[in-house]
């Protein structure tokens, strides 16, 4: 029996959470990201009424104000979204233990072994999950259903908000063919531009080429794009294993120090070594923890959870530095510094597109750096920010 997989995708999550705790915000365009005084901010999440007017995530707030001047503009509520994310997961775990969180507002469920409780009716099960989330938390989600993991994620976007989309079993290729190629997870502006040069507009257009095309022109996407277009995905719902819950790197200094420049350099070096190990084991991390041991042997640590998984150090630089800055004390010197990645999952070959840089380009860069470092030594090649600190 093939696996039946759900992809749960919360609808306009940040905006929906704000509306849930403040119903007065409903019925009018809502933009989460900043007030009208925060003109240099960007949009974190618009609700669907704002989206209908053209407002998009990561759009400059100033532009959003021009599109919907009548909208409510608010700053995000600290801690609200992670709290709602945990509450959604608690509901999901009531139905099956096979839950793989993919981001703060997404999760995969393997429901194969519980379908007998619903007479094999996976749509009925999806409706029950959706209804419980809506009735309990007063927010909605959309669900994609398929035997292929990547298809479930694509399908969950098909009938938003508050929709259910079933990919016909055995007809994955036909379902995907007419959809825009940018619907494939990880295909962002850079890859779309490359594909457009060859007339690739839909997922079905990818079938005009063989594997060598992807290897020569797209590089990191070689097998991934080809398989998606053919409706091939053998991945299952990944449950964190007991033997690989985290990955860490740390260093005990020869001399206790509170030299901030030295500590930043060490932080970046540890971060890059840890990310290199993540890539070696084909893992992605979402939670970053910075640990310090002071000269009096007391230990303190701070953690931050991103909305998306990654194993690229540039995705974690700013967060790592912010966490470490909170741990540097004038009254104490530091004898040990460490970084740890947790909430790990297996890499699937897709680059998670970042709105502000070319993820595909950076993936290629670090892959080449890893090969050079493996052949010679880690310090044979460095990123510019670390090289400058060594001067």
Describe the structure.
The structure is a single chain. With 391 residues, the chain is an alpha+beta fold. It has helices at residues 13-21, 48-51, 61-67, 80-95, 122-137, 149-156, 172-176, 189-196, 211-218, 222-229, 260-280, 317-327, 359-375, 384-390; strands spanning 5-10, 30-32, 45-46, 72-74, 99-103, 106-110, 141-146, 164-166, 246-257, 283-294, 299-310, 334-342, 345-346. The strands form 3 sheets. It has a 5-stranded mixed β-sheet with strand order 5-6-1-7-8. Strands 9, 10, 11, 12 and 13 form a 5-stranded antiparallel β-sheet that branches. The protein has a 3-stranded mixed β-sheet with strand order 3-2-4. Strand 10 and strand 11 (299-310) form a beta hairpin. Helix 4 packs antiparallel against helix 5, helix 9 (211-218) packs across helix 10 and helix 11 (260-280) packs across helix 12. The radius of gyration is 23 Å and the shape is globular. Residues 350-358 and 387-391 have low confidence and may be disordered.
